Amino acid sequence: MGLKAEAVVFDLFGTLVPSFSTNAYEPCLTAMAADLSVPLASFRRVWNGQLWEDRVMGRFADAQESIAKACHAIDAHPAWDAVERALKRRLDYERSLLTPFDDVLPTFDWLHGRGLRLGLISNCAMELVPLWDETELARGLDVSVLSAAVHLAKPDPRIYELACNRLEVQPKDCLYVGDGSDDELQGAQAVGMQAVLIATRPDPARRRRPVPHWDGPRIEGCAEIKTLLA
Length: 230
Ligand SMILES: [Mg+2]
Description:
Helices cover 46% and strands 11% of the residues. The protein is of the alpha/beta class. The longest helix is centred in the middle third of the chain and has 17 residues, at 80-96. The structure holds magnesium ion.
């Protein structure tokens, strides 16, 4: 395709790593509710509904406070050690999500070898923030922008501009690659980035939104970026 870029910015879930696994998520949520001695259905409603935006925008002091606030919203007041136990389960689950697809790290190496800079923009809950820097993915990227850490989320233009500033590239010289959730591709285009849809193979165990309508470039795996840039 011959696209030209000085940097590539990736989405995380559904792009570099699989999207949420419903198989693993339900036991995690059930165990958290048991740790906190709260009804599962009410906890789920608040944690993934009412408080979701606050968790993604990082509006709590830390992940412990986000769990405590979810309990307070259903009139429960768990002891601090119960909150810590629930958080540990959530962190173990979050860590289990962070194994990249096989072609991701080799593609990072290839792109770095061509002199490109690499970034990430993820709409993620606060639990990812303390874990992120220890991952091999984070070490393979030059810049990581996590919504919960910067209090901005895609498709807000400011989060893309922040990533470009940190990468020291103009948006027009930047390729944005994502699976299309949260209107991220349109958001990238709106600031002048070149956007590419990645439509990874569907896995029945994973929760995945339908591939959004997209007329622009499309790839089926990270390694195909090499073809786009060739
Ligand atoms: Mg995604």
